[in-house]
């Protein structure tokens, strides 16, 4: 049997309910870190080096696009996949996200299966208990 690998996922969203929902869903298989704005996301990414970041676009202090750009242009964090989360499904958002180095995109509201499918693109499958 292979060892369980607790990959770290950072959820950066200013809505506590979204962070709680994602944490409840993922905490069985992943270590979930939380940030309530873009500045926190950048700081936590630099110190904790998560394996994946789920980043809201519209947040206070620093938006998700800016935080993504900083993370993806920093030598220490550039290889960490960033998946943008947004309630607005405009093509322009997707284009901006790609221009600022986002690796993926999920539109809110998203299903648990959307989350699993997206995470599985970037992280090895984890074993359920």
List keywords for this structure.
single chain, 129 residues, Rossmann fold, 19% strand
Number of helices: 5
What form results from the Cα inertia axes?
Answer: globular
CATH superfamily: Response regulator
Broad structural category:
alpha/beta
Strand content: 15-25%
Distance between the termini: 13 Å
By DSSP, the count of extended strands is: 5
CATH topology: Rossmann fold
Helix content: 25-40%
Rg (C-alpha, Å) = 14 Å
Oligomer: single chain
Element-by-element helix/strand order: EHEHEHEHEH
Main sheet makeup:
5 strands, parallel
CATH class: Alpha Beta
Description:
It is a single chain. The protein has 129 residues and is an alpha/beta fold. The protein has one domain (8-122): Rossmann fold (3-Layer(aba) Sandwich). Helix content is 40%, strand content 19%. It has helices at 16-26, 38-48, 64-72, 91-99, 112-122; strands at residues 8-12, 31-35, 52-56, 82-86, 104-107. The protein has a five-stranded parallel β-sheet, sandwiched between helices. Helix 2 (38-48) packs parallel to helix 3 (64-72).
Brief digest:
The chain is built from 5 helices and 5 strands, in the order βαβαβαβαβα. It has 129 residues and is an alpha/beta fold. It has a single domain (8-122), classed as Rossmann fold (3-Layer(aba) Sandwich).
Secondary structure elements and pairings:
Elements: E1 8-12, H1 16-26, E2 31-35, H2 38-48, E3 52-56, H3 64-72, E4 82-86, H4 91-99, E5 104-107, H5 112-122
Parallel strand pairs: 1-2, 1-3, 3-4, 4-5
